[in-house]
Amino acid sequence: MLGWFVRALCRPLAPRVALERADAIVVLGAPVGPGGAIGAALEERVRAGVALWQRGLGQWLIVSGGAALAGLMPEAPAMAARARELGVPADAVWVEDQSRSTRENAERSAALLRARGLGSAIVVTQPYHLRRAIAFFTRQGISAQPYFMADSCIFEGGATSARSLRWVVREYLLLLHYRLRGEL
């Protein structure tokens, strides 16, 4: 039952659009485990980004994520390795491994795009995170499209739903915080 509640709370946070081809697909990071192990949420993001790239919806796959917390490994190298394992050639993967937040994901990924004269992206993350991520990319002048994962792991039952509920509530608080500060 909690899974349905999480899904309902995510609805306003997860814009859905018919995807059009973009210059790049940007996969946002999430913390990695010991030794750079990719958890379920990050695996889901990388797989979704790779699937979009394989469908031809973007020429480049940008994996974006540094070490969000002190002592953790940067996320992007692990993401890039996984994308290559899933069939994306190394020369199609751009690694942005300095960002520590969603805002920095957008700033640094946008800089990579602009440096090559590009300006559009499909942004891949869990549904609850889409609205804020798209807002940050748009503020950077990027024409950003959200990719909605209808079968995301955040909608599973049990303990996962309790954790997902915390993430969704946190997201609402972050949106309020950034809006009150005039940053979104």
Record keyword descriptors for this entry:
5-stranded parallel β-sheet, globular, 184 residues, alpha/beta, 6 helices, Rossmann fold, 15% strand, single chain
Write up this protein.
The chain has a single domain, classed as 3-Layer(aba) Sandwich (Rossmann fold), CATH 3.40.50. 44% of the residues lie in helices and 15% in strands. The protein has helices at residues 2-10, 40-54, 75-85, 102-115, 130-139, 159-180; strands at residues 22-28, 58-64, 93-96, 120-124, 143-147. Helix 5 (130-139) links the parallel strand 4 (120-124) and strand 5 (143-147). The chain starts with a helix and ends with a helix. 42% of the residues are buried.
Oligomer: single chain
Q: Given the C-alpha coordinates, what overall shape results?
A: globular
The radius of gyration over CA amounts to 15 Å
Question: What number is the mean pLDDT?
Answer: 91
CATH superfamily, please? HUPs
User: Strand portion, in percent?
Assistant: 15-25%
What would you call the structural class?
alpha/beta
What is the helix content?
A: 40-55%
Strand order of the largest sheet: 3-2-1-4-5
The CATH top-level class label:
Alpha Beta
**Tally of contiguous helical segments:** 6
Work out the number of β strands.
5
Distance between the termini: 32 Å
